[in-house]
Design brief:
The protein is α+β, with helices and mostly antiparallel strands. It folds into three domains: 81 residues, no CATH class; 107 residues, no CATH class; 48 residues, no CATH class. The protein has a three-stranded antiparallel sheet with strand order 1-2-3, with no helix packed on it. A hairpin with a 6-residue loop joins strand 9 and strand 10. The longest helix is centred in the middle third of the chain and has 20 residues.
Length: 284
C-alpha cells in the first residue's frame, strides 16, 4: 500500500490510498480515504477523533496544535515508508557491522565539570507559568585527563578553575585533538613478532575482527597497534581497512564521570557558542 498526500496547501484536500496486488504488482487501484483519522487511529490510545497532518501523518489531539505544526512540516518532503528488500541480506537482516568499534581506543579524554547554582530573576509573566526555572547551573571549573594505551603519551590531568572555564575547556580539547591527530598520523611500523605471536598468527584460520575464514581471496594480514607498533591479532584483508586509525577530531567520543546528560549539556553549549563565532561573518 502507498499513501499519496496533496501537495502543499490546496483549497480542497483529497487523500488517496494506492492498493497493490502482492502477487501481481501491475494490478493497482486508488481508493479515497474518507476519514484519515479513522485510518490511523490505531497509532494512538486517544479515545476520539484526531487531527492528522497530511504530510507526515502525525496525529494531534487539537486543531490548534495541528495548525501550528503544518507551516514547519510542509518545508520537508512528505513521509514515505520504504521497506527493506527481503532479497538483500544487508537490508533485511539487522546485525552489528561496525566491527572496528569493539576494540579499545588508542586515545580518549575523560572530563569532569564542577558547577554552582545561581538563582534566576523571573519576570512577572513567568511567575504565572506552571513551570518555573529557579536556578541556572554555572560551570566553575573542570578536569580533563588524556588516557592512552601507550604510557609515554599519557599526560597529567588538566585542572582549571577561574574565569570563563568553558572557553578554556574548548581550547584545551581542540589542542588535545591536534596533538592526538599528529601522533596518530605517524603510523609506527610493526615491531618484530615474538615466537609465540608468530605461532599464533600462523595457526589462525579465522579473522579475529569479523570471524570470517581466511582464503586466497581474503588473505590473512598482521594487524598491529600503529601507535606503539605492538602486534595485536590476525585480521583479514577486508577488515584491515576498517581497522585503519581515524584522525581525532572527525568523530569525537565523550565520557563523563557518570552523570547522564548533565555534563554533556555544558559541552554542547560551548560547542554551539564557538560554532556561531566561526560561522558569523566579520566586517572589513
Amino acid at each position: 500500500m502507498e499513501y499519496r498526500n496533496p501537495e502543499g496547501e490546496r483549497e480542497h484536500h483529497v487523500n488517496l490510498l494506492l492498493l497493490e496486488d502482492a502477487d501481481n504488482p501491475s494490478k493497482r487501484h486508488y481508493v479515497w480515504i474518507k476519514n484519515i483519522s479513522a485510518l490511523v487511529s490505531h497509532r494512538t490510545k486517544h479515545d476520539g477523533a484526531t487531527y492528522v497532518c497530511n504530510s507526515c501523518l502525525h496525529l494531534f489531539k487539537t486543531q490548534r496544535v495541528l495548525d501550528n505544526h503544518i507551516p514547519y512540516c510542509i518545508q520537508h518532503e512528505p513521509q514515505q515508508v520504504v521497506y527493506p528488500n527481503p532479497q538483500n541480506e544487508k537490508e533485511c537482516v539487522l546485525k552489528f557491522r561496525s566491527k572496528h568499534k569493539q576494540h579499545p581506543l588508542p586515545f580518549y579524554l575523560v572530563c569532569d565539570f564542577e558547577s554552582f547554582l545561581t538563582p534566576v530573576e523571573r519576570e512577572e509573566e513567568e511567575e504565572r507559568n506552571s513551570m518555573k526555572k529557579l536556578d541556572v547551573h554555572n560551570v566553575s571549573g573542570f578536569c580533563c585527563n588524556r588516557i592512552s594505551s601507550e604510557p609515554k603519551y599519557r599526560t597529567p590531568p588538566k585542572v582549571y578553575s577561574g574565569p570563563d572555564p568553558m572557553t578554556e575547556f574548548y581550547d584545551h580539547v581542540m589542542e588535545e585533538s591536534r596533538v592526538i591527530s599528529k601522533i596518530m598520523s605517524r603510523q609506527v611500523p610493526m615491531r618484530p613478532m615474538t615466537s609465540d605471536e608468530y605461532k599464533l598468527h600462523e595457526a589462525a584460520t579465522e579473522c579475529v575482527n569479523c570471524g570470517g575464514r581466511f582464503s586466497d581471496r581474503n588473505l590473512k594480514v598482521r594487524h598491529h597497534d600503529q601507535v606503539s607498533g605492538e602486534y595485536l591479532f590476525p585480521a583479514c584483508h577486508k577488515c584491515i581497512l576498517q581497522l585503519k586509525p581515524r584522525k581525532a577530531g572527525k568523530k569525537s567520543k565523550y565520557s563523563s564521570d557518570g552523570k547522564e546528560n548533565y555534563e554533556e549539556n555544558f559541552f554542547l553549549v560551548i560547542l554551539l557558542h564557538n560554532l556561531k563565532k566561526i560561522m558569523t561573518p566579520t566586517s572589513c
